[in-house]
Amino acid sequence: PVTRVRYESLVRSPRPEIARIVQSTRGAAEESDLSFIHDDGVELPPDHLVARNRMRLLAGRIPLRREDEWRAGLSPRHQRTVSLVTWPLLRRYAYVGPAGATSAGDRRRL
After folding, report:
1. If you write DSSP's letter for every residue of 5-64 in order, what string do you get?
2. Looking only at Cα atoms, what is the longest distance across the chain?
3. What pLDDT score does 108 carry?
4. Which of 10, 78, 81, 92 lies in disulfide reach of 74, CB 3.0 to 4.6 Å?
5. What is the pLDDT of residues 79-102, one digit of tens each?
6. How far apart are CA 101 and CA 90, in angstroms?
7. What is the pLDDT of residue 26?
8. What gap in Å lies between CA 97 and CA 94, rounded to an integer?
9. Is 80 helix (H, G, I), strand (E, B) or coil?
10. How far apart are CA 6 and CA 60, in angstroms?
11. Full-model pTM
């Protein structure tokens, strides 16, 4: 079984997304399992180590926010190039096309 998690969905609605992931792996999550997740971030204890992740050094309230400033830094030409090169994956993961049903405006922001 595969559970796909979109970065945008996780950042926009962290608690429901994490609950969905837990549901797909071991059944319904208890409220206490999700107590570290807040609408705008997560509360991490000092011992949440993950090898080679710079976030492992952070503890306390960590904000969750969409990081897409890189898009604004791309010229329209480079934006088109990125969309063209990534088109097969954009369609596969339903960011565009029939399954994604995005508008032309959304496609311009990809």
Report:
1. --HHHHHHSHHHHHHHHHHHHHSPPPGGGGTTEETTEEEE-TT---TT-GGGG--EEEE-
2. 48
3. 43
4. 78
5. 999 999 999 999 988 888 765 454
6. 11
7. 83
8. 7
9. helix
10. 24
11. 0.64
User: Looking at the DSSP assignment, which residues form a beta bridge with residue 67?
Assistant: none
Cα atoms in the Cβ-side hemisphere of radius 13 Å centred on 103: 2
What tokens appear for 37 in the block?
């997740």
**Half-sphere exposure (Cβ direction) of 109: Cα atoms closer than 13 Å:** 8
Element (H, E) at 89: helix 76-92
What the block records as the tokens of 64 is 């969750």
Q: Give phi and psi for 42, each to the nearest 5.
A: -130, 155
Q: Using one digit for the tens of pLDDT, what is the confidence trace for 13-72?
A: 999 999 999 999 888 888 888 999 988 888 877 665 555 566 556 678 888 888 888 778
Closest CA to 37 of 56, 12, 55: 12
Q: What is the residue type of 52?
A: R
Q: Where are the beta strands (DSSP E) in 1-110?
A: 37-38, 41-44, 60-63
